[in-house]
Amino acid sequence: MPKPENLQIDTSPSVSDEVRKTTCYMCACRCGINVHMKDGQVAYIEGNRDHPVNKGVLCGKGSSGIMQHYAPSRLRAPLKRVGERGSGKFEEISWDEALEIAAGWLAPLREEDPSKLAFFTGRDQSQSFTSWFAQAYGTPNYAAHGGFCSVNMAAAGIYTMGGAFWEFGQPDWDRTKLFMLFGVAEDHDSNPIKIGLGKLKERGAKVIGVNPIRSGYNAIADEWVGITPGTDGLFIMALMHELLRAGKVDLAYLARYTNAGFIVDEDPNSPEKGLFIRGASGKPQVVSRENGELMDYDCPGVTPNLAAQMVEGSVTHRTVFQLIAERYLSDEYAPEAVAERTGVSADKIKSIAAELARVAFEEEIVLDQPWTDWKGQKHDKMIGRPVAFHAMRGISAHSNGFQTCRALHMLQILLGSVEVPGGFRFKPPYPRPPEAHPKPHAGVTPGQPLDGPHLGYPLGPEHLLLDDDGNAKRIDKAFTWENPLSAHGLMHMVISNAHAGDPYKIDTLFMYMANMAWNSTMNTTEVMRMLTDKDDNGDYVIPRIIYSDAYSSEMVAYADLILPDTTYLERHDCISLLDRPICEADGAADAIRWPVVEPDRDVRGFQTALIQLGAKLGLPGFVTEDGSAKFEDYADYIVNHERRPGVGPLAGFRGKDGEGRGRGEPNPDQIDRYIENGGFWVDHIPEDAAFYKPWNKGYQEWAVKRGIFDAEAPYVFNLYVEPMRKFQLAAEGHGDIQPPDHLRERVHQTMDPLPIWYEPFEDSNVDVEEYPIHALTQRPMHMYHSWGTQNAWLRQITGKNSLYLPTKIWEANGFSEGDYAEVSSVHGTITVPVAHHAALNENTIWTWNAIGKRKGTWALDEDAPEATEGFLLNHLIHELQPPKGDGMRWANSDPITGQAAWFDLRVKLKKADPKPAESQPAHAPITSPVGKAPRNVTRKI
């Protein structure tokens, strides 16, 4: 065919006319992105090569952020309910009217009883600000989503070593030679982990994946351990058994940097049995190797003797290390004893333990870097154990998850592989021991702020939030004998407790980014009923619900007032050192988001709306002395708010000249400086301070200068957590604050100061012969939680989910492609499509999390695959454990922290015959305030 003579093809069309650099929000990695603009519109998104988190790498989630920004499901204006709850019938109102309504509800409550407001946020990344609002309002009822996500991981890490995985620290990717993952789904920290795994693979380092499901990271692991769910702690303790038996633990590290040498009171008649022996200074005592004397543990020049004993009359007191050896060298933790329970052979356990020992001690790393420790001793080298670990929700979301996470941290510490070259490294502002964190507060005074921060780390029964009658002060019963160390609250219990009026009734439920009417709740169908339930007077049991979201989610239909949020490309955000920063192990860093485009709808960033609501309510800190608004919007707050003198939400470019780092007066041009710098700020740690952070004087001094600490705060790791022993002592009858009788045995059993393993509560509460199968959910790498399931690009990757079955279960039930299964727990039944997955623990089934959507939501067609074939396992899970016959139904949570025990679920299944037309249960469609998306959308820039 002849070519037209004048045909001209532009082979290099202009992709964009401007690039605006900001921070991604498609997961919690907070990667740097370049947003390409053309004619004032977003054209496409790529990674920022200069950014400290992702260094230019961007995953499918991040690239598809453009479709999140243009999603047809975006809310368009404030909404007031005009139909029944759940009907989805609203009328659009102005922001002035919306804020008037909200203030009209909240102002009288504050003067009468602030605790009648329950303010809970979901995957909010501005928790230092939202908690500040709640504290100023005066309600004790505030928390974010950590209680149903990974509080076991965070709390276990803080109590043990002052930090944990994920935002607290990272492996030394450049030096690690052996890397073990436990229960890590691919959506968490995905870009940094992928970059790190690439480095490991390039260097030939070994990767071991421990997970019942082999997908993602575990699929590329050199060795996969398909463990039985809920038994990770037992497996880890068997590894410790082998290391102790072989003498392959770092004794010098344990003596210098941990409480392994502390002397424990073993007098059976003492009210302080199990606590540390203390000297005149009040500090724990060790026996000096140098002179055999009892001395304060932190005396310069003192090296604790781990094998020492202290004799008082007929009583012999021993060190923590001796108690550890006694416990974990017990035959009950031998590989042969745990193999059947864990699903991991004794030979496999022994070989992994031997590999850990070999790499840690035979491939030791030595850096010729002088440094000075906290006792003033100078060292000419930094010694490292090149073994690193990473873990997440897979080991955390069990009723034994806190102790399992503690066990993993103990394993790291026994190997001497924390805060050393090649091991696990903390990210500023961590490490911080529990003593450096606030204690929880719930002191309510009508018309006044709360008496302190809502959340914190109790150090004994005296820090529980109980009234004079022993009742919970918080609606979620956090920091009570039911879950004493609930550092993140119990978001999954708020609606159930509010509906039951236990411990008291509330008036207003205020939520942000918390899809509690669908995938962010246990017992989904029942929770929807609770949200719409009415009392004998015809009034809603939960009288008022305010909700903020950017999209038409399932929860929107159940609210009375909707405050529409922007997309992440249309607002200011602060990724702060006060909250969830983007730090790396080698430097402190924070970042911003800023409106690279202005909204084309009548929406406001939730944080700005909260600033305006706080001013309307006259909350302290939100208004000036004359009652006028102190901040115009969230950007104004970010720049001018000071949490303490010289320390604000952003640490970079402080002071009038913008040269302040960490500390300095507010800089009116601070946000502009961040934008000029690519949306982030980073300050690198000096080389002599880069490792041994809790004990490195150079790091401590640097952290004080940067405002991370107000004073140097060195400490030792807690292999033995003394505060837990204080709770045990109360359960034994000591002290003025006692647990209720029905919880006494449980507190004593679970609050052990050394890690223990006990079977998940559902295993002991259901007939495991009738319900022999473990059922799990896992988040796909290309979708974070459920944020991307209405995203046009991401839906093409996963538009529906199947229940994946191992070969044994697949063949035993005669399944074929296209079949459905009827799956039942003691709580409910679902009927869903199944698929075969051979690389899976043989007694475990699983599915992707939150792909299923309710019909009518998210601007999807009612016949969209997410709404017809997609499903949730949540229908099989209850927020309460099954009845035990004693009249008590305890929360389906870890008894120490209140972490939701999503992964304890036990089920049975059979082939569904006949096959249903769609997944069950199928709920009636919701009327969405944004309607349905157009069938076809074309756009050209």
From TrEMBL:
It is found in: Cell envelope. It comes from the Bacteria. Residues 654-669 have a biased composition (Basic and acidic residues). The keyword Oxidoreductase applies. Its cofactor is [4Fe-4S] cluster. The keyword Iron applies. Its main location: other. This is Molybdopterin oxidoreductase family protein.
